[in-house]
Every structure is written in C-alpha cells, then in structure tokens.
Amino acid sequence: MAKNKNTVDEQPAKSGLFEYAPAPESPAAAGDIATSYGHFIGGEFVDSSGSEALKTVNPATEQVLASFAQGTDEDVDRAVAAARKAFADWSALPGSERAKYLFRIARIIQERSRELAVLESIDNGKPIRETRDVDLPLVAAHFFYYAGWADKLDYAGYGAAPKPLGVAGQVIPWNFPLLMLAWKIAPALATGNTVVLKPAETTPLTALRFAEICRQAGLPKGVVNIVTGDGRTGAALTAHPDVNKVAFTGSTPVGRAIAKQLAGTRKKLSLELGGKAANIVFDDAPLDQAVEGIVNGIFFNQGHVCCAGSRLLVQESIQDELLDALKRRMGTLRVGDPLDKNTDIGAINSAEQLARITALTEIGESEGAERWSPACELPGTGFWFKPTLFTGVSQAHRIAQEEIFGPVLSVLTFRTPAEAVEKANNTPYGLSAGIWTEKGSRILWMANKLKAGVVWANTFNKFDPTSPFGGYKESGYGREGGRHGLEAYLDV
Amino acid sequence: MSDVMPRLDVFKTYKLYVGGKFPRSESGRVYEVTDAKGQWLANAPLGTRKDTRDAVLAARAAVKGWAGTTAYNRGQVLYRVAEMLQGRREQFTAEVATAEGLGAKKAAALVDAAIDRWVWYAGWTDKVAQIAGGANPVAGPFFNLSTPEPTGVVGIVAPQAGYGYSLLGLVSVVAPAIATGNTVVVAAAAGAPLPALSLGEVLATSDVPGGVVNILSGKTADIAPTLASHQDVNALDLAGAIAADGPGAAAQLEASAADTLKRVVRPPVDPSAADWTDAPGTERLLSFLETKTVWHPMGI
Question: Which whole-number Å values give the CA distances from B214 to A112, A377, B82, B187, in the listed order?
C-alpha cells in the first residue's frame, strides 16, 4: 500500500485520462448586468441615501461586474419602514393567497433558472454545474415547499392560528446567495412576515435579480426589501428597533455579536453559524462511495459550506488504502472556469477569503501537518486554491479546530467507535457529521452519539426543503427547513 | 401535678440539593428567610458562585445517564415525584402559604397544581419526540428522520414572583427541562426558597438520579451570572430574571450567555404579573431540545 501511495503522489493529475473539450456556458445567459445598483425598497429600485458604493467582482476573472450601494442607516430605516407598512396587509391576507404568491415566485425561478444559475456562478465563482443542478432546483423547491405551508399553519404544531412576528431582518452569506435567500424569505413570507434582506457584499447580484422576480410575481410592495452593503449595513439592520425578528447565517463570531446585541430586546433570533464537521469512515465502509462522499463533503462549492466535511476521521486500519483512493480521485478534479460545465471546483469567492484559507493552511504546515494537493494548473487571474489534503493532523492543530471555509481537508485517524465519537464531538461546533459504514446498528449508535444537527450516513451534503437543518452548540440555534423552520417566524 | 411544659418545635436546617446530596453552602453562610409578613422562618444556605460551579459539575455528570434512560422510564420517575409530593402535601401547603402569604386553601390548591404539573410532564416524556420529530419526505431515495435530543445542562433562574411562584413556578420550569432528558441547576426564589429546598428532599426520594436536579438558594445576583457565563451550561431559562437586578439583570445574563451561544428562554415582560397556574403549553418543553436529522440512502 505504501508503495502504491508514492506512485499516486507522483502521478500527474490527468495522465491516462482523456481530456474533456471545454463546454462553456454563455455568460450572456446571465442577462443584463447594470453598471450600478441601488436598493429594492417598497417594490421599487431606489438610489441609496449615501454616496458610498461597493464593487462586486467575478472571482474567476477579477473583473468588476457592477457597483452597488453601501446601505446607510437611513436606507435600512426606509426599508424597515416599507416592510412595516406592508406587514398589516400581508399578514392579514388569507394564507391561501400568500401561498399563491410564493407558488408564482417558485415558478418564475424555475423559468428563469438558467439565467439565475449563470448569474450566480459569475458573481460567486461556484461552478455552473452546481448552481444549475443543486442551487437553483433547491431554491425553487424551498419556495414550493413553504408556499404550501402558508394556508396550513394551524396544522404545523404551533397551536391554532399562530401569528407572524412582524418585520424580519435577514442577513445572509456569500456561499449560497440564492439558496440562503430562499431559506430565509420563503418561510418568512409563508408565515405572514415581511422582510428586509441584506445579501453578502461579495454576492449581491442574484438577490437584486430576485427583486425583479418579486415584481413579476406581483408581490405587494414592501413585502420583500433588499438592502445591499457590507457588515455595517447588516449591523444597522439587526440593531433596528422596528425589526421583530433577526435571522443570520454566517460566522460564529458575528452570530455571537448579534446575540449580544439583541440581549434584552424582544427580537426573536435564529442563527446558522460555523461548523467543523467530522466525516467518519469505518473499515467496513463501501470505499468507493466513501471517497465520493468525502470529495463531495469537502470540495463541493470550493469547501465554502458551513456543514462541509472538513475533518476526515478514518479508521487507522484502512488509512493508507483510503488515502490512496482519495488522492487518485482528487487528481481527477477539474479546477477552473466556473462557467465550464466540466468544472468541479470553481473560484474562491474573494481575495480576502483566499488569504484566509492560505493563512490557515500555512499554519497547518507550520504546526507539522503534511500537505498534499494533486498536480493541477490554476488560471492566472482570479482567486483559486488547489484541493488540499492534510495528513498527520492532531486534535490540537488549528486546522482540526477552526473553520477554514475552503477546499482543505484535515485527516485524523481513530481506532474504536468510541474514539471516533470523542474526536468528532471535540470542537465547539455541532452542525453536521458523516458516517460511513455498512453496519446499520453502528450507524444508529454513532448518529445517536454525535452532537450535530445533521448526520449524513453513507452520503453527505444532502439538502431538502422538507428537512430541518441547523446546529448544536456554537453552530447556532434554530432550524431552517421543514416544519421546524416555521417556528423561527412564528410567535410561539 | 407536674407542670406540662409546652413542647419546643424542632427547627429544620435547610440545605442545598446538589448531586443528590444535601450539602451546606461551601461558604458556611446562611441568610434569613422570612414569611410574607417579615417574620423569621428559617435560615437558608447562602449559595455561592463556587456552589453553582459544583452544581454544574454534578449536572454535567448526570447528563449521560439521564439522557440515556428510556423515555418510558423518565416518565415513571417524574410520576414518582408527583407521588412523593402528594405524600407531603400538608408540609408544602404550609411552606407555600407562609412563603407567599396565602391562606391554607389557596396554598393547597397551588401544591395540588404542582403535583398535577409533574403528572402532566410525566406523560410528555415519551410523546415529545412524536410531536417534535418525524420522517421528512425528501425528494430523493433517502431515509430521513428528525429526532429531538436534550440540549444538556440547563441553568434556570426560578420565578422570583408571580402567583404560585415559590413551588408551582419552580416545578413549571424544572419539570419540562428534565422531562426531555436535560439536567438542571436552578436558582430558587431568593426570597422564598424553602419550598424549593424541601422539593430537593422529595426529589432525593423519588428515583430521580442524583445530579439531574440541583437546587441552590442564595442571591440570584451571584448564582445567575455564574450560570449564564459557564462554559458547560448549554441553555438558560431566565423565568425569574428581571430587568433591575444588578449583574443578574435579564439583559446582562442574556448577553453573557451569548458568549457560548446558549439557548435562552427570556423572562416574561412582567414576571410579577405571571400566573403559574396558567396552562404551561409546550414552549419550555421544546426550548431545551436540539433537532437532529439523520440521512441515509435507500436502495437495494
């Protein structure tokens, strides 16, 4: 085995494999991108009250795509006022009518899904294959799912006629711009709340495009408002006295700060924060499937996934065999143009994020872990990071404890199931975990012991609107998706 | 012709209830507890920050066993508490009456309500997973199940006011947390801790494993902030925390809990207006649960 391992190391990335011809998606399919954007408030696209503008770049080319407004306190104020004004009528609307609006939105998303997928890929850097086959279908599915709840809230298990909270202030991250928008807006609207949403400062374009969809759907003015900007805008929104509910997805430190900010207020809060998932592989696991699951777990969306399987816990007896197979598989990953339909790993979302990943991997090396990446060429411009593997990682290493949020996998070993549980649970996070074994009773035993909100057994990174998602411990509180996801937007 | 001497009452030494035992406060200090009219009733142990940390340790040690027991068994244990409380009805009626300044009839009704509350939660233990969990019909060939699990150690500031707070209020916050498999450290009503400390004696003889419920008396301004900032406390019930209580103020406790992202149940807007005889609903039952969703492929 050890011998085989060396040959894998030396093997050039794609030798012996046929090359795919490029299969580029047309950037023109993204539709017109304006040179500058304001906010979407009260059903209209409006200019910011301030003059500060930010730029969003295509992380694969570093080209500026558009400039957009840095939302001021006054902008946030206007948006919250518009949402407040709209709340009375929207919440009084029969659930069956609210449902129709959500169904309309879901349908329009399906109709325009190619456009949205391409735009998402350009703005975010994620491969078109994923936006087209994962993000957009899920976005539409979330609106369909929650549309159906709007007139059935009496049956959701929160008592008869549960009430909406009012105006929801929602702050979402850049890793799944549209999907996070759907996770936030669909349940909020279904339950009769109105929203002010702030997309991430590196990926505002699809949220603004979504505003157009709200207009096409004839959604009453002010029910959905989009205010762009960076963390300052987000802080203004979460602090706004007329917001009744705050929903945040992002890093644990920011979530903690928001929880502190909201202490002593009556605002309801839900948080989806960081993770450091253990993906645990036992010696009886179906190896090929496990390798696919590991790859999907950490390299999906460039590892920009809070529930990414970033810690591989492999049973010691199969370590060499598994790592050989994993390295072989990693050698076939295609890194490059996100708009190429053959691309597996796209661009890192921003220069800042690339710097963070780079810094943490350097720390990994300096702390003594062994680094490996397949031979692959990275484009000259844009933000890129090779799929990376660290072996010889110990529990105390920072790359085993801190969320890297990039295509970096730390490999640890274990001998007994009990040791696997100990190691898996040994972080402040508790978002997700993976188990790979053929033994059903072991899966159930492990799933029971793991402190994680989502446990994937013999699969990984599966999402569905009917299925609650959210974390234990410092991965946040509340659940999104399913019947559980309604609770965050109801007065219960 | 001997004179009949009036019989001298045997006073009770009230003690904390921690880890299934009845320790005095590590501080060796007590404070005076008076009835609603200001008459001295007893000395209660003045629980300290160290007592609180000891109690958290005991609560943590008890989590594995208590969360691991079957829901059926937990239900029986909770029902056993009701049985034992029923047997001490007269004692608790007297204690609640003096604590809250109520007539015997009202106090007895509150004790009865507290007994009934244990019975209500005893019945919840093996049902909560069915109302809070279930199968999710995901769009794909997967078995997908969501199950509620206990959060772990819950720190509780027991009600300090409101109708029926001293016993019924305490039971209303402790029982739901342990029904679902959590363990608790509770700061009793500082001004009326005697029913709470006596409840410890009931729990100790009710098959509730030591450490599952830990009851502290003393200043909430010492106990509550320790619970809020403790790294090994997973959730916080601020039922009795109020706005103006120095470092124990509700907002400050919540801010402190944010450091470890504890789940927090906020106090009512006006805690003194609370009526603990109101139907409890499921809020507290569901607040100290995490939902775990397990996916597995289906196929042959």
Answer: 58, 61, 18, 9
Return d(Cα B180, Cα B133) in angstroms, integer.
Answer: 13
Q: Residue type at A26?
A: S
Asked if residues A288 and A325 have their Cβ atoms less than 8 Å apart, the reply is yes
CA geometry: angle A467, B137, A110, nearest 5 deg:
75
Round to whole Å and give the CA distance between B95 and B44.
13
Nearest-angstrom CA–CA distance, A435 and A80? 44
B144 Cβ under 8 Å from any chain A Cβ: yes
Structure tokens at A38: 């304001």
Residue A256 is which amino acid? R
The answer for B238, left when phi > 0, alpha when psi is -120 to 50, beta otherwise, is alpha
Residue B30, strand partner residues:
B45
Q: Give tens-digit pLDDT for A315-362.
A: 999 999 999 999 999 999 999 999 999 999 999 999 999 999 999 999
Nearest Cα to A143, choosing from A175, A176, A109? A109
Phi, psi angles (nearest 5°) of residue A237: -70, -50
**pLDDT less than 70: residues of chain B:** 1-2, 243-248
What percent of chain B lies above the pLDDT cut of 90?
94
For B72, half-sphere exposure in the C-beta direction (CA atoms, 13 angstrom radius) is 0
Distances (CA, A) of A37 to A161, A211, A398, B233: 39, 12, 40, 46
Q: What is the pLDDT of residues A72-111, one digit of tens each?
A: 999 999 999 999 999 999 999 999 999 999 999 999 999 9
Say if residues A68 and A36 touch (Cβ distance below 8 Å): yes
Residue B53: Cβ within 10 Å count: 16
Judging contacts by C-beta atoms under 8 Å, the chain A residues touching residue B267 are none
Reported ipTM: 0.94
How close A418 gets to chain B, by Cα (Å)? 14
Residue A87: partners with Cβ closer than 8 Å, 6 or more residues away = A164, A166, A167, A193, A194
For residues A433 and A452, is the Cβ–Cβ distance under 8 A?
yes
Residues of chain B numbered 229-248 and touching chain A (CB < 8 Å): 234
Q: How far apart are the C-alpha atoms of A141 and A156, rounded to whole Å?
A: 19
User: Distance (Å, rounded) from C-alpha A279 to C-alpha A294?
Assistant: 7
In chain B, the residue whose alpha carbon lies closest to the alpha carbon of A438 is B296
Q: Residue holding tokens 């609307």? A: A93
Decide if B275 touches A, using CB distance below 8 A.
no
Active site residues of A: 272
- Is pLDDT of A3 > 50? no
Q: Backbone dihedral region of A439: left (phi > 0), alpha (psi from -120 to 50 degrees) or beta? A: beta
- CA-to-CA distance for B253 and B267, rounded, in angstroms? 11
DSSP state of A272: E
Rounded Cα gap, residues B239 and B271, in angstroms: 8
**Which of A273, A450, A484 lies nearest to residue B291, judging by beta carbons?**
A484
**Residue A307, both tokens:** 């529930």
Tokens describing residue B5? 């001497």
* Residues A311 and A277: beta-carbon distance below 8 Å: yes
pLDDT for position A282: 98
Q: How far is it, in rounded angstroms, from Cα A123 to Cα A117? A: 10
**A370-372 and A388-391 beta bridge pairing:** antiparallel
Partners of residue A268 in chain B, C-beta under 8 Å: none
Statement: the pTM of the whole predicted model exceeds 0.80: yes
Strand partners, A343: none
Q: Which of A47, A81, A41 is nearest to A214 (CA)?
A: A41
Q: How far is CA A55 from CA A67, A124, A198, A233, B161, in A?
A: 4, 13, 15, 15, 55
Query: Which residues is A225 bridged to in the sheet?
Result: A196
Q: Are the Cβ atoms of A467 and B144 closer than 8 angstroms?
A: yes
C-alpha–C-alpha distance, residues B169 and B175, integer Å: 10
For residues B212 and B221, give the distance between their C-alpha atoms in angstroms, rounded to a whole number.
23
